[in-house]
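Listing 4. Sequential folding, example run.
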Amino acid sequence: MKSLEYVTDVLIIGSGAAGLSLALRLAEHCNVIVISKNQLHNCSTWYAQGGIAAVFADTDSINDHIDDTVRTGAGLCDDKAVEFIIGNARKCVDWLVQQGVLFDLVNDNKSSNNSYHLNLEGGHSHRRVLHSADTTGKAIATILINKVRKHSNIRILEQCNAVDLVTSNTIGLCGIKRVIGTYIWNSSKKQVERCYAHAAVVLATGGASNVYQYTTNPDISSGDGIAIAWRAGCRVANLEFNQFHPTSLFNPNAPNFLLTEALRGEGAYLYRPDGSRFMPDFDLRAELAPRDIIARAINYEMKRLEAKCMYLDISYKPKQVIINKFPNIYSKLLKINLDLTSQKIPIVPAAHYTCGGVIVDQYGRTDIDGLYAIGEVSYTGLHGANRLASNSLLECIVYGWSASLDIISNKLPTIVRKVHKLPPWHNYNNVSEIDTKLLKHNLQKLRLIMWNNVGIVRNSTLLDSALNSINLLTSEIEYYYDNVIISNNLLEIRNLLHIARLIVKSALLRKESRGLHYTLDYPTMQQHYSRPTILKP
């Protein structure tokens, strides 16, 4: 197997809003390589429907946005992180607009000026969600991708998957542990390659919701960045808090499809199969309650009634209003013979967002010198025990900005352009291949274990059982990893197994119910658990 080596100033692993916004900010100062597991657009950002939360309305305030975020986070938000991110929201939205992102506008008849149309979403006390119809992520990603592809200082490596990090310890250097580069699996060339980074390596790989059987995420959301950071020696936090989006389309014959939070913000109701509403029975905010409350309510009603799904209905609104506000959802549903303007839509909860991740400071710096983590892969403290809707894209863009400040100020000036030879990949001589069907079977098994045992409602017996099963699967996959030719499927299931183990261990440590973590053994919140769950390698 051949080995190709790349050299750059900054290596960015991941092609979503966080990674690409950082690449554009850095490219005016240094050379950048961006690697993507698939095509650049195949990222979670592309599929984000709702929008980006920021204070633009005169009736809104930064303090109100902070209060909503902290309330939703159920006592586990880091106050400094929340203030930092929300305080810099507007300037980062302005930067997106400067790049060419077009957010929907509304005409203000009083001043005859166009201003942003702001959606209301669950957990928000004001309309503050900027959006591009119901395909905001695609609108942002399209602009960033086009600009990145055209920039002469940015090199793009698609169909490339980071395998593991190389640190100074790996190559026997003394002093502070720092990142040197990474091994890359080039799936199109079927070979392991190496990339040396003079200044920094940035993880922007997204979350790990593909560890669950039902998810709104693309297949690439396999927790790669969290897993490789953990294996390199970074701490992680709050991985027991995986957000389940309440309203994913239920249709066994169609791909998983998210029905955005904005539908409920615009007045959609949730119904039992008999046509009765149920959310007022669970929370005074009804359909505008935070996602954890709604997801548990749906889960409870489905189990109580032995129903396969609940229903979302906005059909009482004028047809053209629905089509104008949600053109993407409307057209996608029509393709499977569902009409958003005249029918109740079958929905179920699905894994959506990883609230925990690699521990970072306000510049995205991890425990390893020169290694940064930004976006969903990271734990900044913004989300606490539950994420406020549309705060995730905001976090991506703010940390793309803040990480660039630190890299430009503190890393680029200290570059020593001496390339340390990265060690050869340890299993170049493996010639055996593994049956793809076996890997897919094991992945399905893992995802079912996580859905049944570590899902919306948990207990200690289920968690212990899950951990035992995960350990057995891990032993099998590690054997394959050491003895066969690697592949994307093998790398992804290996990473997901490592993530699954961290999720279960974190859940077992939190002996209370809080936010997205609900356990029948400890159904109430306990004050002495008002701290993040931190795991150390």
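-- end of first protein; second protein begins --
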Amino acid sequence: MKILGIIAEYNPFHNGHLHMLEEAKKYDKFDAVICVMSGNFLQRGEPAFCNKWTRAEMALHNGVDLVIELPFSFATRSAYFFAKGGVQLLNRTGVTTHIAFGSESGNLSMLKKLAELISEEPQEYKFYLQEYLSQGLSFPSARAKALENFLGIEDSELITLLNKPNNILGIEYLRAILEENSLINPITINRVGSGYHSNQLSNYASATAIRNSLTKNNDFKTISHSLPESCLSLLKRDYKLGLAPVLPESFEQSLLVKLRSLSVRELNSIYEVTEGLEYRIQQAAYISKTLQELRTNIKTKRYNLTKINRMLLYTFFNLTKLQIEEFDKSGPLYLHILGFSSKGRKILQEIKNNSEVSILNRASDVKNIYEKENTTIKGKMIALDILATDIYSIFYPNSTQRKGRGDFTTSPIIVT
């Protein structure tokens, strides 16, 4: 049996995602496609545009057979931990044979070479890395420069490769496969269309462009050619029901309340808050009136906006350094099923026969772990996912939709 794995956010699912999926399927005759997908909060430290069940349904209508949630404690992390959590989950299905990812490069051998180098961390490379970090560069910038110095390459494909977000994530997938001693075979597909941060609308527009256009114009016609019809219909449905959009700005006041109520000592316990940043965060919370001001007042040369966003999210959720240490040691401890197709139902049975971690394919399964294993690492991990859904739902546009405990009442989406 050959099973293709994909790690994604689908925020929302668009034509570029569909292209990658269709191209990956041409690589071999796969029996099914499993997607490990972020929940209601994403790798850039922001809420998803629409909830995890809607995004799972989009995927199931467009060639994915089984959607598994990537726990909050990995979905909202830096590229390395996001990739590692996703690869660990695919490994723990016990059935995944391949993983496909998009990259601007499409050069798997070059990406593998860099993944091996970063994973091995030669002393000379580590020296350059620390040197650039000490100069106040962000980690991604310092790493790129360290690799350039170590390999003795300038103005080459390597420099271009290291500046592209999908290439960077691809390197981290390959690195995770190496470090996990995984037998999963990697496939990379050339990314098509606009860049990740581009606001240009086209047949292959970025998710950023789609979200920004819809938020600004509130007109589905402007994005209709950028995503599959099924996804457009689901977005329209959620807008009509008042389930979307959920925007970063929705959290503005709640976040400021949270930050102003915390002591420096409490801030210092939060994951990623280091090097005295707790003082900078507290001061910024006192003088900032908006989320944009808050980010700007915290930002430094070393800490870019994405890192700041994640740090603020961890603070909002009281995610501490000690919790993260526990989660990283264990890796994901359950497969929370968000949805499946007819083919996915059969693969789910294969997973039950092969996986060594808990499989949560009913809402009651989630509730049982939360109530009966709340002192275990698994219980703490899923408690964060449940809290993420509870908090996310508060910011639905329609107040009648804002009930909590959605993970206890929402069954997996079934698309036949």
